[in-house]
Amino acid sequence: MDASHVGVVGLGGMGKALAESLIAAEHPVAVWDRHTDRVATTAMIGAAPSVSQRQLAEQSQVIFIALPNPTAVREVLYDAESGVLAGLRPEALIVDMTTGNPELAQEVARRVAEIGNGARYVDAPVSGKAPNLTVMIGGKAGVLGSAESIVEDIAGALIYTGALGDGFATKLVHQHVKYATHLAVAEALVMAQQAGLDLPKVIEALERSSGVLGGLKGVLEYYSGNRRAVAKHAPVTTISKDMRLAAALADSVGVTSATLLAAVEFFGAAADSDYAKRPYPESTELLAQWRTTAKVG
């Protein structure tokens, strides 16, 4: 693979930083975006502007896709006249950094394979911004081929997740954790504010204790099989008691917290089970039983 031609489709916040980092790493870069002002701005720092996504594909051996959603990906790739697939070079590689889903990865990979010229597609969503991206690659080590060195130039970590589509799925798990945690912390601070607490002091307490990251640490210890660490955590009955007390405080100050109510319900049920005296991370086994309707794979 000729790794000297790199295309970037989409010049929003992520795509712009990606193009800038590739240029800084001295890769010749071609860019396209439906907003021509973005293309012009990036051209001023050395990128080659493309009049269409097809033209970009015709001059790029590695193509990064950085678009807002799967619908935009399909529009940019599939257009019969101006789409990326219409101009895809032999042995080219499409690296899709959009946040998509496994179905999108399977669909696009199939469409690329149908061209029959050896071109390939890989899902590779990201966290952060170039040049310090964490890239979640839908495949095993080696799937990027010689393009791996290009991705390394704009990333701090490359994580090979296993198979096509697994990169997108891993990113969606990441988003679940990130924004569900945001909601839980935000609801807790609304409760603190309504209770008349000194918010800077509450925030300091969270930052200096196990509050924000403790739950994440416990579940990761469980899934990584670190039994010694798991055994050090408080029992389910203690957590159930704490959740009931927190819910009573929320009720007393007129706050409804969906995340807190879910915790009260779950740990209350776990406390009534055989897991009552076990370290609370082990109750994850119950969660898997109660919240899973079908097993995939």
TrEMBL record:
Database matches in Gene3D superfamilies: N-(1-d-carboxylethyl)-l-norvaline Dehydrogenase, domain 2, NAD(P)-binding Rossmann-like Domain
3-hydroxyisobutyrate dehydrogenase-like NAD-binding domain mapped to chain residues: 165-274
Q: Does the keyword Nucleus apply?
A: no
Q: Which UniProt keywords apply?
A: NAD, Oxidoreductase
Alphabetized GO MF terms? NAD binding; NADP binding; oxidoreductase activity
UniProt superkingdom: Bacteria
> By its UniProt entry, which Pfam families does this protein fall under?
NAD_binding_11, NAD_binding_2
Active-site residues per Swiss-Prot or TrEMBL entry: K171
Question: Where would I find the 6-phosphogluconate dehydrogenase NADP-binding domain in this sequence?
Answer: 6-162
Protein family membership: Belongs to the HIBADH-related family.
Q: What is this protein called?
A: NAD(P)-dependent oxidoreductase
Print the organism lineage: Bacteria, Bacillati, Actinomycetota, Actinomycetes, Micrococcales
